[in-house]
Amino acid sequence: MRMIGLLAWAGAAMAAPAHAAVTATSDIGFATQSSVEIAAEPGAVYALLAVPGRWWDDSHTYSGDSANMTLDPRAGGCFCETIPDPSGKPGSIEHGRVIYAVPGKQLRLSAALGPLQSEGVVGTLDFSIQPKGKGVQVTMTYIVGGYLRGGPAAIAPIVDQVLNAQLQGLKRAGEAH
Q1: CATH classification of the domain holding 134
Q2: Where is the signal peptide (predicted)?
Q3: pTM of the model
Q4: Count of domains in the chain?
Q5: Within 13 A of 84's CA, how many CA atoms are on the CB side?
Q6: Cα–Cα dist 130/124, whole Å
Q7: Across the 177 residues of the chain, what is the mean pLDDT of every consecutive 10-residue run?
Q8: Quick check: 5 and 114 in contact, CB under 8 A?
Q9: CB neighbourhood size of 96 (10 A)
């Protein structure tokens, strides 16, 4: 199942524009960074981060529908997803937990995302929002450390592509009128 999830992540990520980079890898982890300019106000972009159903790609969810995702943008808040079930007893997953929140400026989560959740790792996903031109620049960094059965170097580029695709989705949603 782990390999199927990894292949799904990789396949869907191939369409993402290359505005991101794996900035470091070692035997114990990796770091990625992506940035995008969004023609919107800082507060609006921050508020949009809290509505992942508007910008997160459906193919990178457990339920197949990003509308099932929520993000409570306050310390301790959950980045969670409901997994509907025909029996009426839905499942759920915690993708991450908010550890730092400054409206209009920065949102940081502790999050081992996707296939990393079944590994022995800790991940920190950070969104920094800075005014730039007629909008903002959003810089997303993701730092992962711990034990990865396949090694950090193998999965880092795939994670980078998938997260960049999400950032591109944030841009599209932020500039939609």
Answers
A1: 3.30.530.20
A2: 1-20
A3: 0.88
A4: 1
A5: 8
A6: 19
A7: 40 44 96 97 98 97 97 98 93 98 98 96 98 96 96 95 97 92
A8: yes
A9: 20
